[in-house]
Amino acid sequence: MTLGHDLTAWFSHLNETTGVNFTIVYDSYDRARFLNGLWLTLMISGVTIAGSVLVGIVGAWGQMSRLRWVRGIVACYVEFFRNTPPLVQMYFFYFGLSALLPGTRNSLGFEKPLINGFTWACLSLICFAGSFNVEIFRSGIEAIPSATTEAAESLGFTRLQTYVHVILPLALRVCLPALTNNLVNLVKTTTLAYAIAVPELLYVSNQIWSDNENVPEMMLVLFVIYIALVGILVFAMHAWERALRRPGLGT
After folding, report:
1. Number of domains in the chain
2. For residue 157, what are the domain limits?
3. What number of CA atoms fall less than 13 Å from residue 74's CA on the CB side?
4. The dihedral of CA 99, 52, 220, 36: what is its sign?
5. Distance, CA of 74 to CA of 63 (rounded, Å)
6. What is the pLDDT of residue 30?
7. What pLDDT does residue 45 have?
């Protein structure tokens, strides 16, 4: 017998003898939907991390704009998404904005939303975490001496070139610890997608423990998986921080 078969048989026997019921190991149906939920959680985390960092970079650039209206738009965005609960924001996107968009029809002729729950969840979380990332990158930029910017401009760099090639790399070294904390919170906040019926990890786990009445076992699995996900993210960010470390600024 293979190791996988032995493992499923052992967990099935464990359930029969002790009542400790990890159905995701020995039941193929529960295992499939649990893995699908885990994969969706990973997708949401990856998309929102990349999107929120990009929003933070662009927003910090907008705060440096010479145009007052650009700075005003960025300031309003930051204040709105930083000062309202992320669950309310997700409901606003999914139930508010979605209702204003035209629907489409599937192959059976039934109407469905133009944008699905997964996309709304990602957009909502990107806007939420991005508002904090704007301020994080701004704090890093303000830590860069003005003489550095003046030196780059004296060499013929445009404002955009100075930002991309000089200011941003230096600021990143300063703000990486704060950025790491925000991205960790973002990964944990992905569970809010449960509220709009996105079948991510918490959603499918709730279905599994409702079907099998194995709440303690599934909660234990959830704790372990999220500790692992956050641990991997923190390890990667710390490795990146060490790779960027140079004598002088940000050390």
Report:
1. 1
2. 43-244
3. 23
4. positive
5. 7
6. 92
7. 97
Backbone angles phi, psi at 214, to 5 degrees: -125, 55
Residue 75's CATH number: 1.10.3720.10
Structural domain includes residue 13: no
- Predicted local distance difference test score (pLDDT) of residue 79: 95
pLDDT tens, position by position, 71-95 = 999 999 999 999 999 999 999 999 9
Q: What is the CA radius of gyration of the chain?
A: 23
How far is the C-alpha of 202 from the C-alpha of 204, rounded, in Å?
A: 6
Residue corresponding to tokens 């060499």: 155
Alpha-carbon gap, residue 39 to 42, rounded angstroms: 5
Q: Looking at the domain assignment, is residue 69 inside a domain?
A: yes
The CA–CA distances, whole Å, from 102 to 32, 73, 105, 111, 115 equal 34, 27, 10, 10, 10
DSSP 117-149: HHHHHHHHHHHHHHHHHHHHHHHHHHTS-HHHH
Beta-bridge partners for 105? 111
Asked whether residue 5 is domain-assigned, the answer is no
Maximum separation of any 2 CA atoms in the chain, in Å: 77
For residue 122, the model assigns a pLDDT of 96
Q: Which of 81, 84, 72, 38 lies closest to 187 in space, CA to CA?
A: 38
Q: Give pLDDT, residue 53.
A: 96
Question: Which amino acid is located at 2 in the chain?
Answer: T
| Domain annotation covers residue 152 | yes
CA dist., res. 37 & res. 18, Å (int): 27
Listed as ranges, residues in the chain with pLDDT below 50 are: 1, 251
Segments in the chain forming alpha helices (H): 3-18, 23-26, 28-63, 68-82, 86-91, 98-100, 117-142, 146-154, 159-162, 168-189, 201-212, 215-244
